[in-house]
Design a protein that fits this description.
UDP N-Acetylglucosamine Acyltransferase, domain 1; 3 domains; alpha/beta; 10-stranded parallel beta sheet; 40 strands; homotrimer; flat; Udp-n-acetylmuramoylalanyl-d-glutamate--2,6- Diaminopimelate Ligase, Chain: A, domain 1
Chain lengths: ~350, ~350, ~350
């Protein structure tokens, strides 16, 4: 592993260097685990006291934080700086391996420069794979898939026929792209399957979590836009559209034909009904359920969702409900008695 | 792609033809995307205005809908007609490929006529596969699996030992059939694994979503009956029975030994306790939680579930809870004061 | 299948034999399905009547239960005895097969004695696999994975680079170990991926369900401790720690950096916020949501969680909320009227 000079790291993140720029930094480490040659970071002030005991060689801090005896990179966004420095110090991308023995690539497939296709992968007819993309073992691309450059597709992923991925898309293991949408026409008591002949389009810089499923459209396109980040075990149903830079935590479910705005955030296990619209910059709390369209710039929680602060207050009162009920019943009796007394007079 | 005459499509769906039966139809398209040579459909009256601008050659409509300048197929169930016409116009089932190079099939396996087994599949000892069934790449069938005719098993699915599937079963990618049920006997603070020696039986015409898991029984059978449709990421625990034509949306969980009736509908992220019974024709709303047995012919929501309409009303009042609480406290003070005043007199 | 004498089974579970110890027992079966040569068990007294009609040769019972005409094994924990006897009667572990044709194992990998590696498996550089471990077809182990002895890894599982598993770990099909944690640093409206350079450590005797995902740590270790049992479709986020003998039902989600105590139980679809601590011996009811740290030895339910009994009572009152609201409004009017009347006098 190669080390990098602290001055170079400060420059990389646009930070101010305080101390010894010639320090050679090998790794990033958590504040309570860092050793000599490592850089750590202080994002949460409540851990500041740990800096007195750290063995780190340097630390990334907000402006105004003073640390004795340690070299500093001072910047406005230490968390982002940490991410960038960690990326820089990572082992370089492995050398491309080409199509490895045990991979099966259809002769009609078009492979870009410097691709790596591990054993056990099966690449169908007329597939296009961009330069620098890596398919880890046992990935399956059905016919007519188009995949951009510098994608990373982890082991066991499946991309079904005709789906399209942009550049720098990352699929964690066992992600499924382009499974049939869940569409059936009632035919008496039985159901008749509606062929799902659309596709999925995933734009640049999207990350898809392990075992997350994105269904192909019935007709047309299920669309996941630039920069979207989906955690593990998320369900995106057919004909959904997810706006740019939207983030969904694990076990979220978005039902069919729903349109999610840009820069939204979904907490774990949240869900939405189908055929609704969620505005831009909406945050849905964990386990929240959205049953109707909601406008932009809101924080919502509950089932069905309401403004988060309202929900917090209502939740605090929920356990008092039996007591309230008793109180109300007692009040009814008291009032009846009062009314009686007044009549008697 | 071959086209089909409009008159033939009208006959296929038992609809009335209005206009030019000789029109050659190539594809089905959404009402706002359809072009010349395509047929579209009008199911929701709110989209009727779009018919004025469509470039479609024909449209499937309910009786009583009039459209100028377009040929029509008029029928009672346009949505079902759409599904049937889309199925007819689909590319034909691909020609069978047999056991392709790179697939591994145990010599003791019995394969029906016209099967297709893609590279990377592993088929165990004594497996039986019916005629016309397709295994996409990297499917694994453990020993003694029995699979019917005309099944479609997508890439990465796993069917464990001894499980049985009927005819025309569809498994979306990475579905898991026959994983061990979650059974452990407490042994002090530790748990002792109970061997799961039962199987899963899936009847005809069932569809199982991507990454959906159906556990084998501890003893006996986990049963998914004819026509059941399971969406992605659904959990069916050991010894569950799911009745005919029941439909479950994504991320639903049915706990062990629960018996679900026929023609039920589960909204997304709904769940049930174990060892209970759910009657026929029950609908559980999204995120609903069923903790006790429920009778047939009901629509239920909430946690635990209650009649849907009751739940809707209660939910509408939920955000008012803090206000109600304040009101009750104020009422208590007012009554105390009133009682005081009355005493004073 | 070999049979075992009843006396040997009684000895195995430390139970008292009543009846014919020479009976040869072939299988375990449910009380309503058992036949000659089979042993069944009575755990739930409500099924006692079935014993009159069973064809079983023997039955495992609590002390004090009398059954005419059947041989008995009498013990304090019939359920555990059932599990142990079922394990004993199971087909023996299959004979080791070594590295089978069609598996790819890097030359630098170290394999213990008596391993079995099925076709389609891909084992990376410097992997270590302990004696007796079985990899079913199409398992992928990335570089530097360390796996203990007597593990069972079912088809389609993926273990990413550097993750470590103890002895006797069981992974159900398509489990994913070591996927990237969900970590992104905001960079304006966009997100910058934080490299996830930690690992997952799974200790001895852990079972991981089908399609369950355990993310690698950002820095450091995501830890699943000895004896933990995770059901299907569970999400364990980065840097989580799950304490010994903790059990989680299907579709549970534990958010990042949360620390779960020993011997906890999570009902299906429950979830927790990130960066919190859950004490030992905590039970979270199905669909429960834990948003703050909670102390040990509690049973909690609801969203956010509260003591289970409180939640039960509050839930019972929930459907009465609209009625309570009406009552309160009526009480307000009544009180206003009373106050008026008093003033008038």
């Amino acid at each position: 592993m190669a080390s990098v000079r602290l001055s170079e790291l400060a420059e990389l993140v646009g930070g101010e260097l305080v101390g010894d720029g010639d320090l050679e930094i090998l790794r990033v480490a958590a504040i309570d685990e860092a050793r000599q040659g490592e850089i750590t970071f202080l994002v949460n002030p409540k851990y500041a006291a740990l800096l007195d005991q750290t063995d780190a060689s340097a630390v990334i801090v907000f402006p105004g934080v003073e640390v004795e005896g340690l070299s500093l990179i001072v910047c406005q966004n230490p968390y982002l700086a940490f991410a960038k420095i960690l990326t820089r110090l990572q082992a370089e991308r492995p050398a491309p391996q080409g199509v490895m023995e045990g991979a099966r690539v259809a002769p009609s497939a078009t492979l870009g420069k410097d691709v790596t296709i591990y054993p056990g992968c099966v690449v169908g007819e007329n597939v296009t794979i961009g330069a620098g993309t890596i398919l880890y073992p046992n990935v399956v691309l059905y016919d007519d898939v188009v995949m951009g450059a510098d994608c990373i597709v982890h082991a066991g992923c499946v991309v079904r026929e005709g789906c399209r991925l942009g550049d720098r898309v990352i699929l964690q293991p066992s992600a499924v792209i382009g499974s049939d949408g869940f569409g059936f026409a009632p035919d008496g008591a039985k159901y008749f399957k509606i062929p799902q002949v659309g596709i999925v389009e995933i734009e640049d810089d999207v990350e898809v979590g392990a075992s997350t499923c994105i269904d192909r459209a019935a007709l047309g396109v299920t669309r996941v836009k630039r920069g979207v980040k989906l955690d593990n075990l998320v369900q995106i149903a057919h004909n959904v559209s997810v706006g740019e830079d939207t983030v969904m935590a694990a076990l979220v479910g978005i039902a069919g034909s729903t349109e999610v705005g840009t820069h939204c955030t979904f907490g774990g296990q949240a869900g939405t009904a189908g055929h609704i619209k969620i505005g831009d910059n909406v945050t849905i709390g964990g386990k929240g359920g959205v049953s109707n369209s909601v406008g932009p710039n809101q924080v919502l929680s509950g089932l069905p969702v309401m403004p988060h602060k309202e929900w917090l207050k209502a939740s605090m009162s929920f356990s008092k409900l039996p007591e309230i009920r008793k109180d109300v019943n007692r009040l009814k009796r008291q009032i009846d008695e009062l009314e009686m007394k007044l009549k008697e007079r």
